[in-house]
Amino acid sequence: MKGEVSGHIQRVLGARVNCEMSSMLFTVDQMGGCCHKGYGTCFYRAVSGRGLKVIEGRAFEPSVVYRCRRQSATHTEKKFTNRYLLHPKSPLGKVL
Length: 96
What we know:
alpha+beta; two-stranded antiparallel sheet; 4 strands
C-alpha cells in the first residue's frame, strides 16, 4: 500500500482512462509527501535546455522518514538525463 512506511497516503477521488486505454489519470487527496525522494509530487523537476532543474522544495526529509541515507540519482536517472535531455540532438531540445 502507498504510504505503508512513511504514513503519507493518497485517498483516490476518481480515475480516468485515455482514449487508447494506455494511460490512467487518478485524482487523489494527498496526505503528506508523495515522492520517495521527499517531494510533494514525483514531477518536482522541469526540463530545460541545460538539463533538469528542481522547481519545488521537499515536503519531508527522506532520511528521517525512511531512516536511511539519502540516495543519489539512480543509474536509470543518470542514463535518462544524459541520453535524452543533455544530448545536443535531443528531440526535447526542439520543444524547449
